[in-house]
Write a structure and sequence with these properties.
Blueprint: H1 2-23, H2 27-41, H3 46-66, H4 68-87, H5 93-113, E1 126-137, H6 138-143, E2 149-151, H7 157-160, H8 164-170, E3 172-182, E4 185-194, E5 204-215, E6 218-228, E7 242-253, E8 256-264, E9 270-274, H9 276-304, H10 315-324, H11 330-337, H12 340-343, H13 347-350, H14 352-390, E10 394-400, H15 404-408, H16 422-431, H17 433-446, E11 450-454, E12 479-480, E13 487-488, H18 490-499
Parallel strand pairs: 7-10, 10-11
Antiparallel strand pairs: 1-5, 2-3, 3-4, 5-6, 7-8, 8-9, 12-13
Helix pairs in contact: 1-4, 1-5, 2-3, 9-14, 14-17
Length: 503
């Protein structure tokens, strides 16, 4: 299946070149592209480069619209080549259809994000997909009436036994599934399986996917079942009666990093705070990222100084091609570490020093990736639990509409916008306030709670006299009113201003 995936990548790269060749004859696109590159190379202000980049994207979209007929013909030709490659792959239809769907989904995301599709290396990882056309009832998985898949049904105590060990033992079963059919002969494979949870009886099973991944020196197998069920009834009218305002942002406080202030009408304020150990873990991520960059610089220097003529073909050409793409930097280096130059040559042929560096670099890169994934998951879990508590008794949620994108664009000093301090930007990345707003919106929709984003008055007035004048800086905490002299929490004052029109 890796060969078919890599064939799809080759086809995709071919038609990306044809796409750029087609729209590059448009005069407006050429002018916008030249303007963007000239500003980027001349060290122009950040906002000017950003505006030129937006103009380039608009020009590209307009050029694509004007050349829609030619581009549609290219897309039709690409799909025909994909179909031909799929038919000539020799794979079973269930596997190649799933591979095509996965590639097209990944390609759509790559096009939107401006990325490219990656090739797969032969490492033994794989996936088998068994599609049940029209779906099948859950009971048919266990009674043997399906020719493509069957599971030995666990006993009822597998889900209700008090002891976790007993539940684990009773959940052990076997999965039998068809992996291919050739010349009318069906090949079935049976795996031992631990069924972690029951499949709801009112579902219809659509797909069974069996995956194999290498974890260290062993293989890890997993099976997932894709099911569909009738949509639930729309959420009922919320039973809560609280009108809640939320001011989202980030502020360093002794307890950690305050990400949101929550205020219900007539109640005391509450705060969503990220704990200090999470902030320290994000600092460790920065340290790891710096170590990865240092290792990457070392690797680039080593590989650039090697004489490519000392290697046999095709490894000589692989190294020469890498050395000619020095300007692509770290992204190209990471891809090269998984290329055939390392995977198909012995340690002695590559060189002990370079081989040792590669192992250290890959270890660091994986460590960084795993740490980032775990930290983000932990932060999102904190947000999820906090948000559920926030809207438990709410009838309406009003969130301060802070323009986080505009704040992020002020990371560098410029004449066009106020400078945004580097440390404050670091806390913005740690807090990820947009993720918290997304959680608030999702949970409100799920529970039928009205959700509204409203821009608060900036600067907010003093809660006592209403004056906007301050003795303190705008980012100070607490604030001190210049007229009446009282100190107050600006975040709480913002929430009160959001609630005021509703009172």
């Amino acid at each position: 299946m890796d060969d078919l995936w890599n064939k799809f990548v080759d086809i995709n790269e071919k038609y990306i070149k044809l796409y750029h060749k087609t729209i590059s004859i448009d005069q407006q696109f050429i002018e916008a592209k030249e303007e963007y590159y000239n500003l980027s190379r001349s060290g122009a202000p950040f906002l000017s480069v950003s505006e030129a980049k937006k103009n380039l994207a608009v020009a590209q979209k307009d050029a694509s619209r004007r050349m829609a007929v030619a581009l549609r013909a290219l897309e039709t030709a690409r799909r025909d080549e994909v179909k031909l490659a799929r038919q000539n792959s020799g794979l079973w239809w269930g596997n190649y259809n799933a591979l095509v769907r996965a590639f097209e989904n990944g390609r759509s995301a790559a096009v939107r994000g401006g990325h490219t599709m990656r090739r797969r290396t032969a490492g033994g990882n794989g996936r088998l997909t068994n599609t049940l056309q029209g779906g099948a009832a859950v009971e048919h998985l266990f009674d043997g009436t399906l020719s493509q898949v069957m599971i030995r049904e666990p006993p009822e105590r597998a889900w209700s036994a008090e002891s976790r060990g007993e539940r684990r033992r009773l959940q052990r079963t076997v999965l039998t599934a068809t992996v291919f059919v050739r010349l009318g002969e069906r090949r079935n494979v049976t795996w031992p399986m631990v069924m972690h949870r029951p499949i709801p009886s009112d579902c219809r099973v659509k797909n069974i996917v069996v995956t194999r991944r290498r974890i260290g020196d062993r293989w890890k197998w997993a099976a997932s079942f894709t099911c569909t069920r009738r949509a639930d009834q729309p959420p009922p009218t919320p039973s809560g009666s609280e009108l809640i305002a939320v001011d989202v942002g980030w502020r360093r406080v002794p307890e950690g990093l305050r990400v949101a202030t929550v205020l219900a009408a007539g109640a005391s304020p509450r705060f969503i705070i990220l704990p200090p150990d999470l902030i320290e873990s994000f600092a460790f991520i920065d340290e790891l990222r710096q170590r990865v960059r240092t290792s990457a610089r070392t690797g680039l220097e080593l590989l650039q100084n090697i004489n490519s003529d000392s290697f046999e073909q095709p490894y000589q050409d692989l190294l020469a091609t890498f050395q000619s793409k020095q300007e692509e930097g770290f992204a190209h280096l990471k891809k090269f570490c998984y290329s055939e130059f390392f995977t198909k040559q012995s340690r002695e042929a590559v060189g002990t020093k370079i081989s040792s560096w590669r192992l250290d670099y890959i270890r660091l890169a994986r460590w960084l990736s795993n740490q980032q994934r775990k930290l983000v998951a932990r932060r999102n879990n904190i947000y999820q639990n906090a948000v559920i508590g926030v809207i438990e008794n709410a009838c309406k949620l009003i969130v301060n509409d802070v323009k986080f994108g505009e704040i992020a664009a002020r990371e560098r000093p410029s004449k066009d916008a106020k400078f945004f301090p580097r440390r404050a930007n670091y806390y913005r990345v740690v807090a990820a306030p947009s993720e918290l707003v997304r959680c608030l919106k999702f949970q409100a929709f799920k529970r039928g709670v009205a959700f509204e984003k409203r821009e608060a008055i900036n600067p907010v007035g003093c809660p006592e006299c209403g004056s906007a004048a301050r003795r303190t800086r705008a980012d100070a905490w607490p604030q001190i009113c210049a007229r009446c002299g009282i100190s107050f929490d600006q975040d709480i004052a913002v929430c009160k201003s959001l609630l005021l029109p509703e009172m």
